[in-house]
Design a protein that fits this description.
It is a single chain. By secondary structure, the chain is mainly α. The chain has helices spanning 2-25, 32-35, 37-66, 70-98, 100-104, 108-114, 122-166, 170-181, 190-198, 212-215, 221-271. The relative contact order is 0.04.
Length: 272
């Protein structure tokens, strides 16, 4: 019983530690169970030790207590054996039906020592093998499905990151405005930006004199038309802006000359 108490105390201690760590970190780690497999195995071994040592200690204690009172010893040992065997049968039945693949790959000493009941009949062994194959196919399909979901999530993240990066350049902003203008707000223009940047078209002033036919080599024709319109409109706005600034500067110069003439005429009038 001393060995059982020692194994029970340490099993509770390490299991509590694992439970607390699972609460804190299992939500942010997808492979938490695989990462803690050694501690789980150690706790499982301690649990088996608790079972073996407790059962052996109870049997020895009953024998030492009721000898030579054989009727009482027989009744207590019979009840003890019934409870122990039924618990082992129920546990082995759960393992064989719910986790047949894991049970099929358990070590033989573990299966025959603690969970031997499903292995006593040949038909039951065949059912366990078939159920293990079905569970293996199920886990394989689930693994491929989760891998596909993870790949799609990573691809979507990288695509969004590439799209945001392309829109930081002037050419990227130009193509983004053009796509929005034709009603394609969700359309990704990053690959067309990359094509233009491969030919060293980085600033909007560089492809300004390109025709629609040339632009359509880098992007769809409809988008090329709008990009060309945006470039032409930007060039006209720039020309109008320069002309307006020149006119405004001329007006300012005229006002300044008029004010000087007025001041000179006023000074001459005062002298007269």
């Amino acid at each position: 019983m001393a060995l059982s108490i020692i194994a029970n105390i340490f099993q509770a201690m390490f299991a509590s530690f694992l439970w607390l760590m699972s609460i804190l970190f299992s939500g942010s780690h997808q492979n938490w169970v695989y990462g803690t497999r050694y501690l789980l195995l150690f706790c499982h071994i301690l649990l088996i030790c608790v079972l073996v040592f407790t059962a052996s200690g109870i049997a020895l204690g009953l024998y030492a207590k009721f000898t030579p009172h054989w009727p009482e010893l027989g009744v207590t040992l019979a009840f003890f054996v019934v409870v122990l065997l039924y618990g082992m049968w129920a546990t082995s039945n759960i393992a064989a039906t719910e986790i047949p693949l894991e049970y099929y790959h358990f070590p033989n000493w573990f299966k025959w020592g603690l969970m031997p009941f499903p292995l006593l009949r040949r038909g039951a062994r065949q059912k366990i093998r078939e159920a293990a194959e079905r569970r293996a196919m199920e886990l394989k399909a689930r693994a491929f499905q989760e891998r596909a979901l993870l790949y799609n999530a990573n691809a979507s993240t990288s695509k969004t990151r590439r799209r945001k990066k392309s829109e930081t350049t002037s050419v990227g902003r130009l193509l983004r405005r053009a796509a929005d203008a034709i009603g394609r707000c969700d359309f990704d223009v990053s690959k067309y930006v990359e094509k233009l940047e491969e030919d060293w078209y980085i600033d909007t002033s560089e492809p300004r004199h390109m025709s629609v036919d040339v632009l359509s080599k880098y992007m769809p024709r409809r988008l090329a038309d709008e990009v060309h319109n945006q470039l032409v409109r930007g060039e006209l706005e720039e020309m109008v802006g320069h002309r307006t600034s020149h006119i405004a500067s001329g007006i300012d110069d005229g006002d300044e000359r008029e004010s000087r003439l007025s001041w000179n005429f006023g000074e001459y009038s005062d002298k007269v």
